[in-house]
């Protein structure tokens, strides 16, 4: 039995796919990403937005977070997150799960 809407699973897949693509972008390009407007889309007729947050780290790397919000069927919204660290030598590290709570 499914415990969450099919549209939420689809939305999470979209956010994760954005994260996979960004992991392959060179460090210098990620570092220069503008903190511009979010991407607006519809997921199975529900309005959603996806934004990208790039934050410098004291180590010289960056933290990249892909943050998505999708309108819930009745009230509120659903959140989908993906994130990682990237360093000037092009290595990528996973972002600890507890850090995602900063972005809910």
Short structural description:
With 104 residues, the protein is an alpha+beta fold. The chain has two helices and five strands.
Which ranges are low-confidence, i.e. pLDDT below 50, for 5 or more consecutive residues? Answer: none
Shape designation? elongated
Give average pLDDT, whole number. Answer: 89
Number of helices: 2
Q: Would you count the extended β strands for me?
A: 5
Report the portion of residues in β strands: 35-45%
Structural class: alpha+beta
* H-E string: HHEEEEE
Strand order of the largest sheet: 1-2-3-4-5
Main pleated sheet: 5 strands, antiparallel
Radius of gyration: 14 Å
* Number of domain modules: 1
Structural overview:
16% of the residues are buried. The chain has a five-stranded antiparallel beta sheet with strand order 1-2-3-4-5. It contains two helices and five strands; from the N terminus they run H-H-E-E-E-E-E. The model has no long low-confidence stretch (mean pLDDT 89). A hairpin with a 5-residue loop joins strand 3 and strand 4. The chain has one domain. It is α+β, with helices and mostly antiparallel strands. The chain is elongated.
Provide keyphrases for this structure:
5-stranded antiparallel sheet; 104 residues; alpha+beta
Give the helix/strand layout.
Elements: H1 6-23, H2 27-31, E1 39-43, E2 46-56, E3 62-71, E4 77-86, E5 92-94
């Amino acid at each position: 039995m499914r415990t969450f809407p099919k549209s939420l699973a689809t939305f999470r897949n979209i956010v994760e796919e954005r994260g996979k693509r960004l992991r392959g972008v060179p460090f210098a390009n990620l570092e220069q990403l503008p903190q511009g407007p979010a991407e607006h889309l519809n997921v199975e007729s529900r309005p959603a937005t996806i934004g990208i947050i790039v934050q410098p780290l004291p180590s010289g790397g960056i933290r990249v977070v892909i943050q998505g919000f999708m309108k819930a069927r009745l009230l509120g919204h659903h959140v989908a997150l993906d994130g990682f660290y990237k360093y000037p030598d092009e290595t990528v590290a996973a972002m600890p799960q507890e850090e995602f709570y900063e972005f809910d």
